[in-house]
Amino acid sequence: MDAPVAGDDADLIEALQNAGLPTDDLSETAGRFFAYATLGGEHVGYGGFERAGTAMLVRSLLVRPSARHRGVGGGMLALLLRRAFDDGGREAWALTTTAVSFFERSGFKPTPRAAAPAAILATRQAARLCPASAVLLTRSIRP
Hints:
Blueprint: E1 2-5, H1 10-18, E2 32-37, E3 43-52, E4 55-63, H2 72-86, E5 91-96, H3 100-105, E6 109-110, H4 118-121, H5 124-129, E7 135-140
Parallel strand pairs: 4-5
Antiparallel strand pairs: 1-2, 2-3, 3-4, 5-7, 6-7
């Protein structure tokens, strides 16, 4: 299950910083962020997205170390993409330096940056926060 959290939530920021993920623009973005928990109430991570028309950029998908290797990340991503779809997103984009295979297992395909919508490339995440070595991936979002 998921619950909305503010971009400036102290626990979200601390978790992202501990994982080495960018936090500089969280309070400035129009992104939506969520905290994830199991049905038993175990807090397992965070994720978010930033919409640009029907395109959306996956933001800061983070599985807590204690919840890794249990399929939790795939479930979190599925919930996040459903939230994005319900919000009008039809195309998901992700930038990563470490989780390419995770996103590929979830149907994302590596894509040249030149193929991304200008609005995705203009996000602070894509334009300044992620290194040029980050891989850009995309997939469609369907119900």
